[in-house]
Amino acid sequence: MSRPEEIAPPELFYGDTEAQKYTANSRIKSIQAQMTARALELLALPEDESAFVLDIGCGSGLSGEMLEEEGHVWVGWISRRVCWVKVALEREVEGDLFLHDIGQGFGFRPGTFDGAISISVIQWLLNADSASHSPPQRLARFFTTLHSCLRNPSRAVFQFYPSSDDQVQMIVSAAQRAGFGGGLVVDYPNSRKARKMYLCLMVGQQEVPKGLDGEEMSVEETAKRREEIKNERRRRKESGGRKGKRGKKDVTAKEWILKKKDLYRTRGKEGVPLDSKYTARKRRVQF
């Protein structure tokens, strides 16, 4: 079977049908959950506080949901495809979403994020999908701007599917030239089916974690582990510890909209509508 990145650019391959199918497939969601859980483990965020995380290539927000469950705030960066935004909004994800080509780099302020994760994305940067695309230049711009927007110390963890050792070398070299430390973490290296590759990049001096060995966790074991994490977080919350996931049911639509408006004004965004008695009013259905 051909690899998706070899069939068409992401803005063409992931059409409305493909995006819906990807998000609704239970097997894909299970695999995504396992890889995101492992990426968060490698990210090694502080357990006693909420972190601000960049989810690169967030798609419909499957990884973002796990970040929310861990009590973190996240921003999603989506490739140039509106269908992902539609699916994410339908699923009512909590993170703010940006629609932009990751090969053009990031425009965030230095030291904005406490960490970054990415699941099955960076291999797309290795394809020249147009005459203006140069994989080495796109990788350099990607990693240089990412390094700038991460605080020191912090980590960025990328799960990816390289098609050759040359691609691995190109990605690792580009990250090192941008100033990152760290390296590759390979889980289950002796298993053709369970083998997973993670690029664990470091800002600041840190030790590279080791890969997993032995048998891969089953879907049931992964679900059980996630339930244990939720219960532990709930116990910490009840005992006055770290805050848990923000409850949607405790916040009205108007409160949520006013909060979003305040956030946009704080960021200096222009054109934010004024608050009035009509804010968050229910619209009449048009037939």
UniProtKB/TrEMBL annotation:
Keywords, ordered alphabetically: Cytoplasm, Methyltransferase, Nucleus, S-adenosyl-L-methionine, Transferase
GO biological process, any: rRNA (guanine-N7)-methylation
Localization per Swiss-Prot or TrEMBL: Cytoplasm; Nucleus
Nucleus keyword on record: yes
Residues of the signal peptide: none
Residue intervals of the 18S rRNA (guanine(1575)-N(7))-methyltransferase Bud23 C-terminal domain: 201-284
Recorded GO CC terms: cytoplasm; nucleolus
Keyword Hydrolase: no
Comp. bias (Basic residues): 232-248
An MF annotation (GO) of this entry: rRNA (guanine) methyltransferase activity
Alphabetical list of InterPro entries matching this protein: Bud23-like, Bud23_C, SAM-dependent_MTases_sf
Region (Disordered), start-end ranges: 213-253
Comp. bias regions, Basic and acidic residues: 221-231
Predominant place of localization: cytoplasm
Superkingdom assignment: Eukaryota
Family that this chain belongs to: Belongs to the class I-like SAM-binding methyltransferase superfamily. BUD23/WBSCR22 family.
Protein name listed in UniProt: 18S rRNA (guanine(1575)-N(7))-methyltransferase Bud23 C-terminal domain-containing protein
Organism of this sequence: Saitozyma podzolica
